[in-house]
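Propose amino acids for all 103 sites.
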């Protein structure tokens, strides 16, 4: 889950940056990240919230959980399943924030 959250927001160097170090895009290409079936729904929800980040001068601080909770409510899932998804989404969120805020 951590690799999946980070991969969604991983920044790849542009051509000028690659050229400065004598690299090609293939040299810095990250390995593909597989989405396991048990993580698919959490990933889809997380990816759908990609425009719902809370941002401060320090960078991204987290997702707008009001939007997440509304999304979960609309799915009509059990409370237990919503809790599981929220836990999975928090892992994705943390990994994504680390990648987004990386200097």
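Proposal:
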């Amino acid at each position: 889950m951590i690799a999946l959250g980070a991969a969604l927001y991983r920044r790849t160097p542009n051509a000028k940056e690659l050229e400065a170090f004598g690299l090609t895009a293939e040299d810095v290409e990250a390995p593909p990240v597989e989405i396991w079936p048990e993580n698919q729904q959490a990933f889809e929800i997380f990816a759908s919230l990609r425009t719902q980040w809370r941002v401060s001068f320090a960078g991204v601080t987290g997702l707008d959980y009001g939007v997440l909770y509304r999304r979960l409510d609309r799915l009509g899932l059990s409370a237990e399943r919503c809790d599981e998804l929220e836990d999975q989404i928090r892992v994705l969120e943390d990994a994504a924030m680390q990648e987004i805020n990386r200097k």
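The CA atoms of residues 49 and 68 lie 7 Å apart. Residues 2-100 form one domain.
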